[in-house]
Write a structure and sequence with these properties.
The chain is mainly α and 561 residues long. The chain folds into two domains: 224 residues, MetI-like (MetI-like fold); 245 residues, MetI-like fold, CATH 1.10.3720.10. The protein has 24 helices and no strands. The longest helix has 36 residues. The chain is globular, with a radius of gyration of 25 Å.
């Protein structure tokens, strides 16, 4: 048979498989070009990056890990700060879940289609209005919310609750709507066809099947709330983050390591609790971002999620009890929300922000800093993703089988994600000159700890039978893992990486507050100089940038579903 004949008779790949490979190649090409551009923008290839005089401070910092501050007074302060951080996280999470459940229902397709009783109806303007309205608070980082609220409400625990609850509520609403839309609808359709009102049909036909995934994601948001409550210390909201910042600025490294130990303990306990809850609920991972709606894997996961009513009741009782206990501990002054002073300050700020500064000089500066911010997010997620895939393999319990690499990798990832990104940025600024690169590296290191943990869970839950077959055939463990488990986890890993890119774009703002470049640095200058028209223009630019990253991230995840 001739070569041309063989080519004509070669079996063609299925259309779905060809589409996957074509889409994946395009994503890889565009990603590599974006990383190359970001590398030049953050200044990695430029000279004069390292400040040699800062190495002595770095050595002092790590040497202090052997002699942390253990006096009774400071340990008492650390415990009080830990409880404050935990209380902020609980109260902020409770508010975000209320917003998320209401917003998730109203922004889901299934809600509007159920009320119209036909899958062929258009969703219409109300659905678009809800989705668009939730996109605005989601685009603004919780630290920015905190800075605005501090100027209106003063330094009150209420600021931390609202700063966490508002943006987290919008993010939770988006994910809740996706969970509801991807939940199998056969029971819902049966109730609707039987004449049951739409609200009751959703309550009895859809929410019970989506509830395990909703609860699992809620516990994932608790982990995020702990980290964000720590970051709010940058604006003076109290808690562990505030104490860490004070100790770092005063170069009291022994105190800082004691506080870091408390952060690691709090993050580790939350991580363990979340894992146990997901085990009970039958939810294999904290976050499922690469399953297409209606796919068999999603239906199977939902079918497995049948926890006992006693377990669910216990979780709900404990969670409900923690909210009033946390409120009693931090004692927020809810009366400030409706005080005449608050209304006056809010109205004054709104009036001073309009119209936004649209001068040519400001627009040119915003464009330059927006590109710099975008480059920081691309560089950060590329570094975090590459090293996250590597570290996730030994961090997965069932990957290699060796014990000491597992605990070393798990401990390293916990350490990296427990320390807030602004603190990492300050540490990098010890040995690097100010600019976008220290900020990008800080975001990369912090997100490496988060991504590594998420990808490790994907490795743990992958089908182990191909690896066992290779091991029984005499293949070394490392080779068996590389040829069996790793290829099966790449799509999920890439989905997590592109999902976290959206978060990295938001986090570029907070590292800018410590002088690490991007739009965050400009926001700090505008807030300190009371330049509210310029501040509004910067927020608009940040919203547009976040929206662009959100769209690009979703488009990049689509071919690997």
């Amino acid at each position: 048979m001739s070569a041309s004949s063989a080519t004509r008779h070669r079996p063609a790949l299925p259309l779905s498989l060809r589409s996957f490979f074509n889409g994946a190649r395009l994503v890889v090409l565009v990603t590599l070009l974006a990383i190359a551009w970001a590398t030049t923008q953050v200044g990695l290839l430029r000279g004069n990056l390292i400040n040699g005089g800062g190495w002595a401070l770095v050595q002092q910092f790590f040497a202090a890990a052997l002699r942390p501050e253990l006096s009774a007074d400071f340990l008492r302060l650390t415990l009080e700060s830990t409880l404050v951080t935990f209380a902020y996280a609980i109260c902020g999470l409770a508010l975000s879940l209320v917003i998320g459940l209401a917003g998730g229902l109203l922004s889901s397709e299934v809600w509007w289609l159920s009320h119209r009783r036909t899958s062929g109806s258009k969703l219409g303007a109300p659905w678009l209005a809800v989705r668009g309205g939730l996109a605005v608070p989601r685009a603004i980082h919780e630290v920015i919310w905190g800075l605005f609220l501090v100027k209106i409400l003063g330094l009150d625990p209420l600021v931390a609750i609202l700063a966490l609850g508002i943006p987290f509520g919008a993010i939770t609403a988006k994910v809740f709507s996706e969970i509801l839309d991807e939940t199998p609808r056969d029971a819902l359709r049966g109730l609707l066809n039987g004449g049951v009102p739409a609200g009751q049909a959703l309550l009895y036909g859809l929410l019970p099947r989506a509830f395990p995934n909703l609860l699992s994601y809620s516990f994932y948001r608790l982990e995020c709330a702990i980290r964000s409550a720590t970051v709010l210390g940058v604006i003076g909201a109290g808690g562990l983050g505030y104490q860490v910042l004070l100790s770092l600025q005063s170069l009291r490294y022994g105190e800082m390591w004691t506080l870091i130990a408390a952060l690691i303990a709090l993050s580790g306990a939350t991580d363990w609790l979340s894992a146990r809850v997901r085990q009970v609920l039958g939810a294999p991972t904290r976050l499922e971002v690469n399953l297409a709606p209606g796919c068999d894997a999603q239906a199977a996961a939902l079918a497995r999620a049948t926890p006992s009513s006693r377990t669910l009741l216990g979780l709900l009782v404990v969670g409900a009890a923690l909210v009033p206990l946390s409120l009693l501990y931090i004692r927020p002054d809810f009366g400030r929300l409706f005080s005449p002073r608050t209304q006056m300050l809010f109205g004054q700020m709104v009036r001073e922000m309009f119209p936004p500064d649209l001068s040519a000089e400001n627009m040119a500066s915003l464009l330059q800093l927006s590109l710099q911010t975008l480059a920081m997010s691309i560089f950060a997620i590329a570094v975090a993703g590459a090293f996250g895939i590597v570290l996730a393999q030994p961090a997965a319990r069932r990957a290699m089988g060796a014990r000491w690499p597992y605990w070393l990798a798990r401990g390293s990832l916990l350490f990296l994600r427990a320390i807030p990104a602004p603190v990492w940025a300050l540490l990098f600024l010890f040995v690097m000159f100010p600019g976008p690169l220290p900020g990008a590296l800080a975001i990369a290191v912090h997100n490496l700890g988060i991504l590594g943990r998420l990808i490790a869970e994907a490795v743990e839950n992958v089908d182990q039978r191909p690896m066992r077959v290779l091991r029984h055939g005499g293949t070394p463990p490392a080779h068996a893992f590389l040829y069996s488990t790793l290829p099966m986890t790449i799509p999920q890993s890439l989905a997590y990486i592109f999902y976290r890119w959206e978060v990295c774009a938001r986090e570029t703002v907070i590292v800018g507050f410590v002088g690490a470049g991007g739009l965050g640095r400009l926001l700090t200058e505008q807030l300190s100089s009371f330049d509210y028209p310029g501040l509004l223009s910067t927020l608009i630019a940040l919203f547009v940038l976040t929206f662009v990253v959100d769209v690009l991230s979703a488009a990049a995840r689509r071919p690997i579903r």
